[in-house]
Specification:
The protein is α+β, with helices and mostly antiparallel strands and 240 residues long. The chain is built from eight helices and seven strands. Helix 8 links the parallel strand 6 and strand 7. Helix 1 runs antiparallel to helix 3, helix 5 packs across helix 6 and helix 6 runs antiparallel to helix 7. It is elongated.
Length: 240
C-alpha cells in the first residue's frame, strides 16, 4: 500500500507541475518561480521513483532469502536439510581437491547420528512429543559444534554433521559432548508431568580413514559405523 501511495503522490506532483506551468498566470507566479517549482517537482518525482525501486528491491531480497531458507533449512528443527547437505558435501570436496591438487587426502569428517528407539517415543507419547525431542536434539548438536560445522537433518530421526578442516581431537570431543549431552538431558514427554531420557548412536568417519575424491565413500563408512554402534548396544560412538 505504501508503494501505491508514493506512486500516486509522484503522479500528482508531476501533474501539478504541468498545470502550474500551463496556467502560471492564474497563480500570478513569475516564470522563475514556475521553473523552480517544476524543478522541485521533478526532484521529488525522482526521489519517489527511487524509493519505489528501493522498496521493490528490498521486498524481492526478502522473498529470495525466505525461498533460500525453505530450500536449505528443515522447517521443524532449524537444521539444514538433506538436499543442502548432499550439495554441500559435493561442493566442499571439489573445493578441497582444487586447493590440494598434489594430495588425494581430504580433511573432512562426517558423523551420522540416529536417535535410539525413536519410534517408541512417537508410538507412546505421540508425534508432538517426538517433534519436541527432535528440536531439542538439534539444539544440543549446535551447542556442541562450531559455527563452521554443518548440522543437518538427514531424514526422520537421523542427522548428519559435516566437519571441515578440523582436528580429529576436536571432532571426537564434539561428538562425545553430543552423545553425553543428549543422554543427560531430561525431555518433557507429557506436558512436564512425565520426563525421560533419550540416547543416540553415532558413526564417525573421515580424516585419516580414507584417500579418495569420492564423497560417498566417507558417507557410507560413517553410515556403516552407525549400524555397528546400534549392534553394539546403542548409545555409543564408533569412529574406527
Amino acid at each position: 500500500m505504501k508503494i501505491i501511495e508514493v506512486l500516486l503522490i509522484t503522479i500528482t506532483l508531476s501533474i501539478s507541475y504541468i498545470i502550474t506551468a500551463d496556467y502560471s498566470i492564474l497563480y500570478r507566479l513569475s516564470r522563475v518561480t514556475v521553473v523552480n517549482i517544476g524543478l522541485a517537482n521533478i526532484i521529488l518525482s525522482i526521489l519517489g521513483m527511487s524509493f519505489i525501486i528501493y522498496r521493490y528491491y528490498k521486498a524481492t531480497e526478502k522473498l529470495n532469502e525466505e525461498l533460500r531458507k525453505i530450500s536449505e533449512i528443515d522447517g521443524l528443527t532449524g537444521a539444514y536439510n538433506r538436499m543442502f547437505f548432499d550439495q554441500s558435501l559435493k561442493d566442499l570436496v571439489e573445493d578441497i581437491l582444487e586447493e590440494n591438487k598434489s594430495s588425494s587426502k581430504i580433511n573432512l569428517g562426517i558423523a551420522i547420528i540416529d536417535i535410539d528407539d525413536f519410534k517408541r517415543i512417537n508410538d507412546i507419547y505421540g508425534h508432538i512429543v517426538g517433534d519436541s525431542v527432535l528440536k531439542k536434539v538439534v539444539e544440543i548438536m549446535k551447542e556442541s559444534t562450531s559455527s563452521k560445522d554443518l548440522v543437518c537433518r538427514y531424514g526422520g530421526e537421523e542427522f548428519a554433521i559435516l566437519f571441515l578442516k578440523s582436528s580429529r581431537r576436536r571432532v571426537l570431543k564434539a561428538i562425545r559432548d553430543i552423545r553425553v549431552g543428549i543422554e543427560d538431558c531430561e525431555f518433557d514427554f507429557n506436558d512436564k508431568s512425565i520426563r525421560g531420557h533419550v540416547t543416540v548412536s553415532i558413526g564417525l568417519a573421515g580424516f585419516e580413514d580414507f584417500y579418495t575424491n569420492d564423497p560417498l565413500t566417507i558417507l557410507n563408512l560413517a553410515d556403516q559405523r552407525l549400524y555397528q554402534a546400534k549392534n553394539r548396544g546403542k548409545n555409543k560412538v564408533v569412529s574406527s
